[in-house]
Design goal:
2 copies of one chain form a homodimer.
Chain A: H1 2-16, E1 21-22, H2 25-30, E2 44-46, H3 51-63, E3 68-71, E4 90-93, E5 100-104, E6 109-112, H4 118-127, E7 132-133, H5 145-150, E8 166-172, E9 178-180, E10 214-221, E11 223-224, E12 228-236, H6 239-251, E13 259-263, H7 264-271, H8 276-279, H9 286-295, E14 301-309, H10 312-325, E15 330-333, H11 343-346, H12 356-359, E16 379-389, H13 392-408, E17 414-419, E18 424-434, H14 440-457, H15 478-491
Parallel strand pairs in A: 2-4, 3-4
Antiparallel strand pairs in A: 1-2, 5-6, 6-10, 7-11, 8-9, 8-10, 12-14, 12-15, 13-14, 13-17, 16-18, 17-18
Helix pairs in contact in A: 1-3, 6-13, 13-14
């Protein structure tokens, strides 16, 4: 109801100040743009300064029955950016909550608020000359560390299954109360930042990939710099053997970090530009793809293996094991003293994020600006994220199918298979297109839907989705749906936060 | 109500057959005995044969408002064995569900029902000549693999944080419906056994250390046999330096399995018998303790470090790193071919459980029978399980306090500090006493309560509890209690399964 909304906005203005409650059409329009077609528009954007204000904002929303959509940094590119999941919602922008609340070098953790970015955290740790680094995303460096973990994003280093390495969430519940998960409910527990679960049922999972609360604080675990960091690079014509070799290396603990596998197009999007002259239009002709692949020294399939050795001998032993398992892999040692090396020499494998992958969103744009803003610039980009057994045959079938679906729709199929954990590959395929080309918005989403349905039917359901497929498992199991709905109804009877 | 109970029992008899519904006083009395004083008595024991029957049993309980208490193998020694958490409950004994439902060697997992024991699983894998082994508990070999994980027990090997390495739970909800967690809700998903979380909120945690459902199936991940297994043994007079060294080895990934630290008494309970003649009674005089410690070549503090190398060079590099970190640690190589070695040569570190620790429950008994049955034999045994930062100073303070409390009450303080994960130690202290000594039941529980309160006040809350401290965090946070109660009320409005 408009009246309720106005009343809430008036109270938010009193609480936060005029400048932190946005209702002007230009800003709202900007907040309604993602990298694919979306219809939802925010009614307002409110920007609390701290955790207490978040709780107060939620209480006001409750009083007036206004739904909220929390956004940490709004860099959820390819999943809907910062666009709310439904109409009538007010965006709760947590960007001002950008404090690194705690850092313990001995016990290897930081505690952060939702506005803390990967870049900020990396700089903080390097400025402190910390002996440890954070797992960082391959996405935008200005994305939220907390929100990425909460969405179960993947990252670099030995703690790459990011949500598996967090603890002690503070959550503002839909009624505005503040809940501490894990051991945080015990006043002054020394172990709150140190353990995933507390005593009794473990609740953290309820707040990931969900709208059951606003997470306002989280502890993120860090990994010590290795004495020996090495990165191996391999290319292969055939996918199955290398996938099976990588699984063996992950299961045995030789490789502790994510093993990425990329097709040629995935990397061409990062290292090259769309060859408009040579291609004479879209899609990219096979012959040009082949020419570009060879020019860039890429294989049909490619990947890196990052090794974290605690001594030179340890690193050498790991390298020998990987070299024996993967034909022709070539290793390069990383910097011996990461803190004295420059950021580029470290890279994500040692906790320094970059924005090079973001440039690939401009693949079908004729120009790439110096300041990247894919939402505003009309870049088209949609993720398809499905789980596939970490096994050669499955990997091949899933990759074939997604490549075929995307190519049939006139897009270059960019495909990655990420070994974030040892038993399941995260198949992340993406469509890069130009939103200014008439019809491509529709074509891209329709193609995504077809591919998603096909992959699910093959036994490879989605592991993450955004506005392109809200609540993607809905309907798969009535018992499951009723169970989750009953919990949501108990926690959020007014639908204040539910997506 | 007696009438409701009788009606339910009649229906269970129809469903399961007379022989699987126990109501005779002798059996019920046996099911009411634990290793410390308990008051709760089961009204009956029902023993379904399979997962479908479990659901039917729960539905009958629902129809007649009869509370159930699920027990898998009833070997929860020191936490209440198989005694239900409240009066008026019927024990739902899952021991007949002892099927190993699935095994995949390539993807390294087994899927089991709740009745499958550690011994059974170990024998199964060795009989198959599997290349992988399961993490096994230090407790009874006939305990349930599934239930131990669900209670967040610890185990051997690189997958020792057991609940962190499971997937795809099937859960019978309090209304008798069957819920599949993770990707299991998608029909025929190939990745159900392979991934911890599915898509949307992650639910598995809700069913651990809780009474929100009956878990009837779980996938347990396996680790490949290492090419080089080595176990190091150390003793130390001072605790902090070795704790700090172990933390470093865990954080860097050099040591991937649990690092146990034991005081002398903890090990004397396993390797020796109470020296009645020399001691002249209880408690054990300090001089005798010292004499026994020296005789057994133990230190004030002791521990092992297990290393899993994927090659001889890998193993050697790991060993050198550990040797440099821990003074005087002595290594022994394990069997080169575990499957050709006998079970004893493998031991828990390579997935073979044993019952040697169970014998320590007879510490203050004059006789140890050949068939161990601590519940029936009047062994007194209570666990105190608290989380402590993995740091020397904290470890020392917590250990000192618990040793002092237990000694003051006239018990030998057995203390272990287990580095199951790299940042938190699981302090597990135990009291071994003789239930047939008048007053000791009361003294032991009172001592436990004092120690628990003291540790919690120091910032070290419990991470696990049984009948000695039901719902140990209750009252610590009203918001937390309301939240968990709201979920329980939504899932189990009739209190059929709630503890």
């Amino acid at each position: 109801m408009r009246e309720d909304l106005d009343a809430a906005i008036a109270r938010w203005r009193d609480l936060l100040g005029e400048e932190h409650v946005w209702t002007d059409p230009a800003r709202l329009a900007a907040g309604a743009r993602a990298t694919f077609a979306t219809t939802q528009r925010p009614e307002a954007v409110i920007r609390p300064a701290d955790r207490a204000q978040v709780a107060q904002c939620v209480r006001i929303a409750n009083d007036h029955d206004v739904p909220l959509y929390p956004v940490s940094r709004g860099e959820n590119l390819g999943y809907g950016s910062r666009v709310p999941s439904r109409d009538g919602a007010v965006v709760l922008d947590l960007g001002r909550l950008d404090r690194i609340v705690d850092f313990d070098e001995r016990l290897a953790y930081v505690t952060v608020e939702p506005g803390v970015t990967f870049r900020q955290l990396s700089r903080f740790l390097r400025t402190c000359r910390a002996r440890e680094f954070a797992s960082v995303t391959g996405g935008p460096a200005d994305a939220s560390v907390l929100a990425n973990a909460l969405e179960r994003g993947d990252g670099s280093g030995p703690l790459g299954d990011r949500f598996a390495h967090v603890a002690g969430l503070e959550v503002v519940l839909p009624d505005g109360e503040r809940l501490e998960t894990g051991f945080g409910r015990f006043a002054d527990a020394a172990i709150t930042p140190l353990a995933t679960w507390g005593v009794g049922p473990a609740l953290d999972g309820l707040f990931s990939q969900s709208g059951l609360g606003v997470v306002t604080r989280m502890t993120i675990w860090l990994a010590p710099y290795p004495a020996s960091f090495q990165m191996g690079w391999w290319t292969a014509a055939a996918l199955p053997p290398v996938v099976d070799a990588l699984r063996g290396l992950r299961l045995s603990g030789v490789v502790t970090s994510t093993t990425p596998v990329w097709n040629d197009l995935k990397l061409l999007g990062v290292v090259a530009r769309y060859p408009w002259d040579e291609a004479g239009g879209t899609p990219l002709p096979d012959a040009v793809r082949l020419r570009m692949r060879e020019h860039a020294n890429l294989g049909r399939w490619n990947g890196t293996v990052s090794l974290y050795g605690a001594s030179a001998a340890h690193g050498a032993a790991l390298r020998d094991l990987v070299a024996a398992a993967i034909d022709g892999i070539a290793f390069q040692p990383g910097p011996a003293k990461p803190l004295d090396a420059d950021e580029d020499a470290c890279g994500p494998g040692l906790g320094v994020p970059h924005d090079r992958n973001v440039a690939s969103l401009y693949w079908r744009k004729r120009e790439v600006p110096t300041q990247l803003d894919p939402d505003a610039d009309g870049c088209g980009f949609v993720w398809l994220s499905h789980g596939v057994p970490f096994e050669g045959g499955h990997a091949q079938r899933a990759a074939d199918r997604v490549e075929t679906e995307l190519a049939a729709a006139g897009f270059e199929p960019c495909v990655a298979l990420l070994g974030v954990t040892p038993r399941m590959l995260q198949l992340v395929a993406s469509i890069s297109y130009d939103r200014d080309v008439t019809g491509d918005d529709d074509r891209a989403l329709a193609c995504c839907t077809r591919a998603r349905t096909a992959l699910e039917a093959m036994g490879y359901p989605p592991f993450r989705a955004g506005l392109q497929a809200l609540d993607p498992g809905r309907g798969a199991s009535p018992v499951y749906d009723r169970f989750v709905d009953a919990i949501a109804q108990a926690i959020d009877p007014k639908h204040i936060l539910r997506r």
